[in-house]
Design a protein that fits this description.
Number of strands: 6
Enzyme class: transferase
GO molecular function: protein-ribulosamine 3-kinase activity
Protein name: protein-ribulosamine 3-kinase
Number of helices: 4
Helix content: 40-55%
Catalytic activity: N(6)-D-ribulosyl-L-lysyl-[protein] + ATP = N(6)-(3-O-phospho-D-ribulosyl)-L-lysyl-[protein] + ADP + H(+)
Oligomer: single chain
Mean pLDDT: 87
InterPro entries: Fructo-/Ketosamine-3-kinase, Kinase-like_dom_sf
Structural class: alpha+beta
Length: about 160
């Protein structure tokens, strides 16, 4: 159910800014024969040539990033979203892009670790989260610099 609600809410946000996504119509869940089902209903979107024209796709992504506004002025989202069955750690509000990205990446690393025991991966994950991410992202919001919270796409539609 998290998957459908998150997809519905994120598509609603994307569609309100940029019509390069199907219009979300509704979502919900039901139980039949003791099995839980969820659904997402979206408007039909005729897919153009494949692969998408790189210039048009880049222009629509730029439009999404430029026109979208965070409802709180912070980074995050108001509901959990998913990538396949993996719940993403973005359902929080923070002033720091580094904090939100670290939360999300930490969840991905934790999920990856459940499939295998590999000490080198654990060490690398810790290093990336404690050294690399802050080194790359913190300077974007220090010494008078700022970045605008905006929608980040999951699905790309042409």
């Amino acid at each position: 159910m998290i998957t459908c609600r998150g997809e519905y809410e994120s598509l609603k946000s994307i569609y309100s800014v940029c019509a390069h996504a199907p219009a979300p119509l509704g979502w919900g869940s039901y139980t039949e024969d003791n099995i839980d089902y969820s659904y997402l209903l979206v408007d039909f979107l005729a897919i153009q040539k494949q692969p998408a024209d790189a210039k048009n796709l880049a222009a629509s992504l730029a439009e999404l990033h430029l026109k979208s506004q965070s409802p709180t002025g912070k980074f995050g989202f108001h509901v959990p979203t998913c990538h396949t069955r993996n719940v993403q750690a973005v359902d929080l509000w923070t002033d720091s892009w580094c904090e939100l990205f670290s939360s999300h990446l930490s969840r991905i690393i934790s999920h990856a670790k459940t499939g295998f025991a590999w000490p080198e991966f654990d060490n690398l994950g810790k290093l990336v989260l404690s050294k690399v991410v802050p080194a790359l992202l913190l300077p974007l919001q220090t010494d008078g610099r700022s970045i605008k919270p905006c929608l980040v796409h999951g699905d790309c539609w042409d």
